Amino acid sequence: xxxxxxxxxxxxxxxxxxxxxxxxxxxxxxxxxxxxxxxxxxxxxxxxxxxxxxxxxxxxxxxxxxxxxxxxxxxxxxxxxxxxxxxxxxxxxxxxxxxxxxxxxxxxxxxxxxxxxxxxxxxxxxxxxxxxxxxxxxxxxxxxxxxxxxxxxxxxxxxxxxxxxxxxxxxxxxxxxxxxxxxxxxxxxxxxxxxxxxxxxxxxxxxxxxxxxxxxxxxxxxxxxxxxxxxxxxxxxxxxxxxxxxxxxxxxxxxxxxxxxxxxxxxxxxxx
Amino acid sequence: xxxxxxxxxxxxxxxxxxxxxxxxxxxxxxxxxxxxxxxxxxxxxxxxxxxxxxxxxxxxxxxxxxxxxxxxxxxxxxxxxxxxxxxxxxxxxxxxxxxxxxxxxxxxxxxxxxxxxxxxxxxxxxxxxxxxxxxxxxxxxxxxxxxxxxxxxxxxxxxxxxxxxxxxxxxxxxxxxxxxxxxxxxxxxxxxxxxxxxxxxxxxxxxxxxxxxxxxxxxxxxxxxxxxxxxxxxxxxxxxxxxxxxxxxxxxxxxxxxxxxxxxxxxxxxxxxxxxxxxxxxxxxxxxxxxxxxxxxxxxxxxxxxxxxxxxxxxxxxxxxxxxxxxxxxxxxxxxxxxxxxxxxxxxxxxxxxxxxxxxxxxxxxxxxxxxxxxxxxxxxxxxxxxxxxxxxxxxxxxxxxxxxxxxxxxxxxxxxxxxxxxxxxxxxxx
Lengths: 272, 431
Hints:
The complex is a heterodimer of chains A (272) and B (431).
Chain A: E1 3-7, H1 15-21, H2 23-37, H3 47-66, H4 76-103, H5 105-108, H6 116-143, H7 155-179, H8 183-197, H9 209-215, H10 219-232, H11 240-265, H12 268-271
Helix pairs in contact in A: 2-6, 3-4, 3-6, 4-6, 4-7, 4-8, 4-10, 6-7, 7-10, 7-11, 10-11
Chain B: E1 4-17, H1 27-36, H2 41-51, E2 53-66, E3 70-74, H3 81-88, E4 96-102, E5 105-108, H4 121-131, H5 136-150, H6 165-177, E6 183-187, H7 195-210, E7 214-218, H8 222-228, E8 231-236, E9 239-245, H9 246-259, E10 265-267, E11 272-280, E12 289-290, E13 296-309, E14 312-319, E15 322-328, H10 329-332, E16 338-349, E17 358-366, E18 373-385, E19 412-415, E20 421-424
Parallel strand pairs in B: 3-7, 3-8, 5-6, 6-7, 12-18
Antiparallel strand pairs in B: 1-2, 1-4, 8-9, 10-11, 11-13, 13-16, 14-15, 14-17, 17-18, 19-20
């Protein structure tokens, strides 16, 4: 028979066991969010494709045509898409997980389960969107007769990295949002600026060399570069210090995010 | 000797009564504090705790619950019932003390939490099941049973938002009822749903208890507690006040609430204080027990620091099966010209057509425009109707079931095939 001891001032030893017991809930919550998102919409899942399509068109016109940024021999829309897929995943995950705990406050104040499930499953939801939008990349590559280079085998590494970055930031933001609703204003701000600060509409090569290191402090810079490098090949060469910084940052984000989330989780029900 | 499944030692939960609104907990305050004392962050945390007013929602609670016990927990609003349940269900953590639980525990603090309005009944069964801790395989196995219990087969693929509230509650309870934990914690879930369904739920809980499992049941509904529980715990001001057999404790509880009706309510925005609400019988004596057919007088003493022009007052009586009747100025239009200073106001419900059950009196006050609540509709007093129905000419073989019947009896008359007629009413027997 299972035994449970709840004691004041002690983090429950059962936590990780509970997380395992509720593992199916990750799936169910993500499933719910996806299902709900496209209920009573006419275009449905099509929105996962329309959104990136429109953004690509705008960024291509602004940076490629008007700004005359170098494309490195690749069709500009393709260049933009490779940057936008990870960016859109990251930014959606950030805003969705940020709101996740607050929108599920009814659950939190009435039922016990590891709260981590809520934050993580909202990142999973964004990841599914990312996978759907990726179909668009395949279509566009065929359209432009652009075969993926050998470096494509490294793509999963960067997918894992962007997932990690989203998760780490998601944990921080969701836990912070419970206590400080200020982040409701901060997050959209970061998302909006991030699109232009990160190399989504252009290549990070255009950044002058002396600022390159500073520029790479944004983990998404290294990750987006990685996506381009693995999908479009050598023309967009990789900036290794930037990648190293990104990897370290992702680990720090996840570890610190978990720490902060666990630390504040116990009082969620009291302050939400 | 049955073994204990829940052991609670010196349990306490402290809340800081918030000055949260003033921005003390906000981001700006935290940053400010961090900037002012970058190294003394810990110290500043402690100082802040001291400066806040503390409130112990639960203090020094120790108790043991044995396997197969069905325990009712009663107490007024704010006595700590919900806090105790929240601690047991691990929604929040204790400030001090220890709880040991043996066995799988499931708590039902609200019916239908985790349901999503946009999803269909079928989808919600899976979602809610998973949230309550069932595995996918378990849900699939019990799916038909759940659907059958809820009785909503035809609407399984309709979004829940199109359900009537009754259907919603039925489905939600059906999912929770099939959790099959060793220990079940239930909070007021029976406050909703129609009489037939409530009975079905009580039946399900009865089965549950009979199969040797443990139930903790919190309710205002004394009859439901009496029917289901052997043991009863009475919480008062965050402590265990009395603990004993359900019959005994409920009796005491009732007499206690009858003795001091200390409902009071102040709305500073409107300068209105409801000092107290007193129930009186036909003779004008203060009482909390009435016989069927007696008059019930609800007397409200108020103090309006600022004159309230033409306020609407609503007084209602609610029984175990829901609302019985109301006196509603919004409808009858008899609102007073003004309420100013200290005063009294009463409503007399004549010859109560009520069965011997427990009831609550509710009231609310609204502004002249009818929209703004000065006092929100809430319980202000409790009373019970007592009496032998045989005195009123009742002679049915199943009279003992009257305690679960609908509460209101309008005088009626049967015309029988043999040409005779029989009239029934709860008018006071002339003696």
